[in-house]
């Protein structure tokens, strides 16, 4: 287990697919930081004074896309070059996510200080940033964004209490359903048969396609803030109670519980190869090898 102490709560985090880098924004810092757990090295994004609010690694792990207001930048690690103004979006970019094959980039945008507005989903062609599809979501700020493993679906949710799933290839046709509270986190299973969702203290798994409930996972003492699947199908969740938990979603059984003393947790991630897992909270980031 390795730990990195941050200067304030982690506001955004991403784990590179190859397990070598953890990108994050914490406290009042404007740039993104990239931590290499193996060496302890930390570097800051060359984004001048722009405040980074969202970030995502390309599936290769060699490029980090950063959202600063209405502008998306791409930071190439090989030559430490920042491609400024790679793309622009209509409002402030809150969340970013790549399709597993790297051909699509999804962005959720919402104006700061605009609680009565809708968020929008914009899907970019990674090879041609000027080619995009844009559709409205629901009202209120978005908190969750997830691609399914084959990029068949994109799921999103937020303060509007709605889970909305768009089907790619069908002109982004969507289906939505209402939860009892804000939707904090969403994640598709590796076999694309299930969608895990967190709404306040409620953590559940729904069947992909029908979106009918399959199981409720009970254990967190506070709101569940993040969730993601490991390659073997085990679900990782992180919550405001400061714990990270592993679940067998088939039996709804808790497999393990970790408390790294980071305070309330806000983010969780697992690398594409399953070699590294990370959680972040009020006082820093912890990465560990589950094996």
Derived from helix and strand composition plus strand pairing, the structural class reads: mainly beta
Taken in chain order, the helices and strands follow as EEEEEEEEEEEEEEEEEEEEEEEEEEEE
Q: Indicate the low-confidence ranges by residue numbers.
A: none
Q: What radius of gyration results from the CA coordinates?
A: 17 Å
**Gap from first CA to last CA:** 11 Å
What is the number of helical segments per DSSP (H or I, 4+ residues)? Answer: 0
Strand order of the largest sheet: 1-28-27-26
Task: Estimate what percentage of residues fall within beta strands.
Answer: over 45%
Question: How would you name the CATH homologous superfamily of the domain at 183-291?
Answer: YVTN repeat-like/Quinoprotein amine dehydrogenase
Helix content: under 10%
Specify the CATH class of the domain at 183-291. Answer: Mainly Beta
Oligomer: single chain
Per the CATH scheme, the topology name of the domain at 183-291 is: Methylamine Dehydrogenase, Chain H
Shape: globular
CATH-derived architecture of the domain at 183-291: 7 Propeller
Mean pLDDT: 93
Biggest β-sheet strands, sense, barrel: 4 strands, antiparallel
Say how many strands there are: 28
